[in-house]
Amino acid sequence: METSLRVLGQEHPSTLTSMANLASTYRNQGRWKEAEDLEVQVMETRKRVLGQEHPSTLTSIANLASTFWNQGRWKEAEDLEVQVMETRKRVLGQEHPDTLTTMANLASTYRNQGRWKEAEDLEVQVMGTRKRVLGQEHPDTLISMNNLALTWKGLGRDKEALKLMEECVLLLTRIIGTNHPDTLSSRAILLKWQINELEIDP
Hints:
Blueprint: H1 2-8, H2 13-28, H3 32-50, H4 55-70, H5 74-91, H6 97-112, H7 116-133, H8 139-154, H9 158-175, H10 181-200
């Protein structure tokens, strides 16, 4: 990054990519403040140089939202995610994978605040679109099923949540394998729910 900065300058795309990559490394290490400082720089520069609606600018905004999300700064994450979602809907279209990812991220932010109905509305849209566009067995569709099941559980719709999670785990096991982290995570949730059901209905 230092070399890019010195040779190419602060606003060169390669410099900004290097800064974004370093921010991602910080984020993966849980070094949130350092990640945030770089992400804000990259975002502001891309807004100024490339424009508010450029895909790279939107990626920068989404990355900063992710840093806020990982710190539980829900309101700040939400504000950025709504901005990215609305722009991607307008620029890329409702069914573009990047638009759907942003909708799923916003739903997750709502879910973490206990705003179950808002989360559900988005997750139903995302799952339905992914089923239609990507297919029932695509990994992104399966993640959507998992997320919607969690939201239904939060809404107290236990039977529906359990049924959807059972379907999700069966598909995950068959498609990405028994030992994949996503399969293990969903199976652990399902097992916990099944035990709870047995305790309620002995």
